[in-house]
Amino acid sequence: MLAPCLLRRAILTVPLVFVVALLVSEPVRADQEAGTAIPAESRPCVDCHAFEFMQRALQDLKKTAYNLDTRTETLLLQVEKRNLCDCVAANLLN
User: How far apart are the C-alpha atoms of 31 and 15, rounded to whole Å?
Assistant: First the structure.
């Protein structure tokens, strides 16, 4: 007879404890991130990262353009040298 009364009290008490715990606890705001929050002053901005990335990309493009220009110039000099050698050899044979 005592057991059904205790069971009924437990069934009513457990949900009541959960409701009180939810009401007492502080709700989590949507703007809070999980983990440690880093203040905005100490975080580098996204624009700064984008600017640094674009600067590096521009430097890489400049190096590539310089290398291509140098390679093209070298190839043109080799072609001119061959043409001169062919011309000199043809003149010697005549």
Answer: 29
DSSP 8-state symbol, 45: P
Amino acid at 64: T
pLDDT tens per residue, the chain (94 residues)?
556 666 666 676 777 676 667 666 766 555 555 566 666 666 667 677 788 889 999 999 999 999 999 999 999 999 988 888 877 777 776 6
Q: Which helix (H) or strand (E) holds 82?
A: helix 46-93
Max CA pair span of the chain: 132
pTM of the predicted model as reported, rounded to 2 decimal places: 0.41
The residue with tokens 């440690």 is 36
- What is the rounded CA–CA span in Å between residue 59 and residue 65? 10
CA distance 14 to 7: 11
